[in-house]
Structures are given as C-alpha cells and as structure tokens.
Amino acid sequence: MVSTEPKTERDTEPPTAGGAPPSRRIGTLAAAAIVLLILDVVSKALVVANLEGRPPVRLLGGLIYLDVIRNAGAAFSMATGMTWVFSVVMIAVAIAIVWVAPRLRSTGWALGLGLVLAGALGNLIDRLFRGPGPMRGYVVDFLSLFFPYGEHFAVFNVADCGITVGGAVIAVMALLGRDYDGTRMRERKASAEGNA
Fold this sequence. Notes:
about 200 residues, mainly alpha, 3-stranded antiparallel beta sheet, 3 strands, about 50% helix, elongated
C-alpha cells in the first residue's frame, strides 16, 4: 500500500545524511571553539601578567603547578627551530575544519572539531602576535602536572588541552564507526557496494 502522507523534510534528506541538520552542528562546533579560545587567551594573558618570572604556584595539593614558560617548539618542546612550520600547519588545520563544518551532522564530531579548532587558533595567535615575531612567536605554556618545571610531563596550556581532548573525541567517534556526516561507516560501505 502506498502512503498518501506528505513527505517531511527528514524524509527528503539524502540517505547518507544521518543526524541533525548541519546548522545545529555548526553551532556546537562554534560554541565549543569560542568558549575554549576565550579560556585559552584569557588564561595566557593572566599568567603572563601575574606569574611570569616568578616561582611556580602549587595548586590542588601539588596536582598542578602554574609555571610560565615560552615554548618555541611543538608539544614537549620538540623541533624548537621550526616555529613557522607549526604556524602553517595550524592554519591548514583551521581551514580544513571550516571546510568540513557545513557537512557536519554528528554532535561528537562537531564537539571534537570545535575543540581542535580552538586549540589550533589559540596557539596560532601566540605564534602570530608574540615575540620574537610573526609566524615565529613563542607559545605561552603554564600548566605542569604533579611537579613544577615540567619534570615528569611537558608544560602545556588550555589550547593544548583542547587539541588533546578534541582529538580523543574524534578518535572515539571513529572507533564507534561514526563519520562526520552522521552516518555509520558500515552503512556507507554497504550503500556503496549496493550501488556498484
């Protein structure tokens, strides 16, 4: 029996487009990116103004130390002479995320990409506007776990947390078989095989 009910917007969506409309996911991505970017920029400004050049500040019984350093390299201070390369990579990451954003239909992917975008932009702002000059600026790191001076783990910042957590969310989504457009990778493969 053929249904005579009018088709809804959901019924007319392409079969590969799962999840909610992209505008909601762009909102999730933008909100995550804006909140984290503000936290990163404000926290760096506060620690530079109040703690730079001073001994580390012990917090939470020694779980965290506030210890301001200027990082010319990547995570763990690797490749310190390649600051401009990291600037180019961060710009490329930001462009790629903005390009994918209109196709997003997965909340998990939107959240993960928003956090990665904020992290990339937060550290890019340092590399563009801090000394010694544009594309070569040092990133402000100030969080040291368990011991001061990064004795047992690298000193990092809020942007680094965003990149790490966002990357982990994206990895979980991939492990669950969820693609950024909301479809399951299995379903996409089956659909491709059915159309072949």
